[in-house]
From TrEMBL:
GO biological process: cell adhesion
Top-rank lineage group of the source organism: Bacteria
Gene Ontology cellular component annotations, sorted alphabetically: pilus
Pfam families xref list: Pilin
Name the UniProt record assigns to this protein: Pilin
Homology family: Belongs to the N-Me-Phe pilin family.
InterPro entries: Pilin (IPR001082), Pilin-like (IPR045584)
Amino acid sequence: MSEMVLAASAGRTTLSEAYATNSQFPSSASGVADYVPNSSSQYVSAVTYTLGSASEAVITVTASNKVGGSANGTKIKLTGVGDSSKGTVAWTCSTVDMPTKYLPASCK
């Protein structure tokens, strides 16, 4: 499952940099792919980006059907909340529907 967190890491870094520069997360659909590439792998079927607000962004990673068991097709979310006074973003990891036993340590 750590591969799922790694799949979102590039997006987390570039979105944090964009927030630090602009004091908000990108909202245009055309620019989002530059920040969060929708890459897939053996264990990741999709990576998507959702803008919650100017100061909140969500990267959702969907597990492929090769993960196994009840984790197939489940999702984890990295949620970034920006602090415009500091130009920083605090990221938290959570699950949408993944059984706890499959979560990486950083998401428990």
